[in-house]
Structures are given as C-alpha cells and as structure tokens.
Amino acid sequence: MTALTPSSTRGLESHAIGMDAATAVAATLKALADPLRLRMLSAIATSPAAEVTVGELATLTEVSQPTVSHHLRVLRESGLLAADRRGTSVWYHIEPSCRGALNTLLDRFAPAAIGAVAAPHLTGLTNVEPALDHLAASLAERFPATPPSECVRVVRESYTALARRGGEPTHLVPLTEHFARQRIMDAERARALEAERPRPQVLFVCVANAGRSQLAAALMRHYAGDRVVVRSAGSAPASDVHANIRLLLEEMGDAAAADEVDDMTRFYPKPLTDDAVRAADVVVTMGCGDVCPVLPGTRYEDWLVGDPALASPAGVAAIRDELDERVRTLLAELLPEAA
C-alpha cells in the first residue's frame, strides 16, 4: 500500500467532513441507533396529525411507559423531536428543521440499508444503440402524431433514467420501451386536453416508486379498470419494487392492476417526468416533498401514509387498508357513478 504524503493528506482533509461536524452528526446517529427510537420517529413522521403522545407511542412496544419517556428524552436532547404540553398530555412532533432529513432517512436510507445488495454492473449493454434506434423507430410508427426526433429523445432519456436507478440490466430495454411509450402517450394526451375531455388521469408519486405509489396505483386500477388512466412515479426511483409490496400486487391477481411489460417485469419503479404531471388531472404525493412540479389546473393531494417497506406485516396490512379507503374515496369523486 502506498503511504500518504503530506500533500495527499491535505487533499483528503479538504474532502472530509470537519471534525466538529462529524462529532455533531455522530451524536445524532447515536441517538438514532435504537430500533424503538426509529419506530417512534417513523410513527410520528407519518401520523395524520404529525404528532403523538407518550401513551400512543407505548403501544409500539411492550416496554414500560417510563422507558418510552427515556427514549423520547434522548430524541429531544438530540434535537430531532420537540414537544408541547396541552392539558395533562405531552404531544411530540418532529422538529421542523429535521423533517426533510428524517424523511430521507426513512424513505431512502432505511430501505437501502435493509436490502443492501451491490447493484449489478451494467454488462451486456455496450451495444445497446441498435436496440434503442429500433425502439424509437417502432414508437414513431405507432404514434404518428409525435415526430420521430421526439421519439428518439424520449427513448434515450428513458433508457438513461432507468439505467441510473440500477436494477437488472437485462430488463432495461423492455422497460425502456414501456416507459417511453407511456411518456409519449402522456405527452400526446396533454396536447389534446384543450380539444377534448378524455378519461381522468391520476398520477401517484412517492420517493422510490417502490411501495406506496405502486400499491395505490394498483388499487386504483383494480377498482377503476379502464375508466381511469393510472400512472405512478418516484422522485428518486429505486431499482425494484419492495418485496412485501410485490407480494401484495401479485396477490391481487388482476392483470389490470399493474404496468405490464412481461411476466418478469410487471412492476418497476419509474422516474417522475414533467409529461406525467402535465397529463394528470390529479397528482397524489406520498412523502416526496415539494419535488413534484405544481401546474395550474391540476388537482394535488398529499397523502400522509406510512412506508410499507419498513413496516411490520401488520403495519403493511394497515397501510394497504388505508390506501384502499383513500383510493376508493378519490375514485368516487372522479367517477360518481362508480361509488
């Protein structure tokens, strides 16, 4: 191993986090390094009122209420939680300055830590150009209202976005075909909105498009069939759908309940695009913050729903039931005759 010279040491120092900052971050990570505290934070962050009491948090575990209070005190001292006393109860909520960071922890880092697997190297795709050219030509024939040059752009953008999020490389070309086709359809629909009133279109968005938005979209398709155009996307899509969500989707046993490409790639996370937002009548966000473009004339809803990727089996079932109720309520508003 080559020894570091003083100049290379100084170079590393310029890239490393400062000692004071590292000490502060390490103290916060130490406060987070407890399963019960993480469960408490996730429950508070996704509760409908965004605040809970000690008594409510005690239901998450069999430990005594004083033990729960101890963990809450640790989280408060670390600056992650704040509390308000109203009457005889103390209500805990996420410190506003930490909410974005905690959402990233729960929505992105935690699922990655649970399923930490090295992303496969994109081998076997060095000569993908002919396949993409053929795909763009095929889409240009199927969608004559879209210029061939636009089909080429969409195909290449779609391939790049899907390759960047990782996943099984052998599926990238068929996934690109499906995603590019969906984007072209959305763009054509957006251009036609001024001339006609087509079926309502709903876009479900979460961070990874691997859990909540996939399940909500599948439920909407299940109940609405072809009466509603359903899309889902992620602001930072994962490489694959969470395993527990995939089981729920496949248990539905409904071909209309998923984006079908083939038997191996029926469900896959998709990047959020402006075309999808422009084509939607309703955009439902779940934990993705303010990354979704806000367009005039589009209805937006934010559903505060827990992340099924991190939930227990009972928690996954409860999330599924909550999404089911919300989806049926939205469908009844879009199609009153379906109520």
UniProtKB/TrEMBL annotation:
<protein>
    <submittedName>
        <fullName>Metalloregulator ArsR/SmtB family transcription factor</fullName>
    </submittedName>
</protein>
<dbReference type="InterPro" id="IPR036196">
    <property type="entry name" value="Ptyr_pPase_sf"/>
</dbReference>
<dbReference type="InterPro" id="IPR011991">
    <property type="entry name" value="ArsR-like_HTH"/>
</dbReference>
<dbReference type="InterPro" id="IPR001845">
    <property type="entry name" value="HTH_ArsR_DNA-bd_dom"/>
</dbReference>
<dbReference type="InterPro" id="IPR036388">
    <property type="entry name" value="WH-like_DNA-bd_sf"/>
</dbReference>
<dbReference type="InterPro" id="IPR036390">
    <property type="entry name" value="WH_DNA-bd_sf"/>
</dbReference>
<dbReference type="Pfam" id="PF01451">
    <property type="entry name" value="LMWPc"/>
</dbReference>
<dbReference type="Pfam" id="PF21234">
    <property type="entry name" value="Phosphatase-like_N"/>
</dbReference>
<dbReference type="InterPro" id="IPR023485">
    <property type="entry name" value="Ptyr_pPase"/>
</dbReference>
<keyword id="KW-0059">Arsenical resistance</keyword>
<dbReference type="InterPro" id="IPR048716">
    <property type="entry name" value="Phosphatase-like_N"/>
</dbReference>
<feature type="domain" description="HTH arsR-type">
    <location>
        <begin position="17"/>
        <end position="113"/>
    </location>
</feature>
<dbReference type="Pfam" id="PF01022">
    <property type="entry name" value="HTH_5"/>
</dbReference>
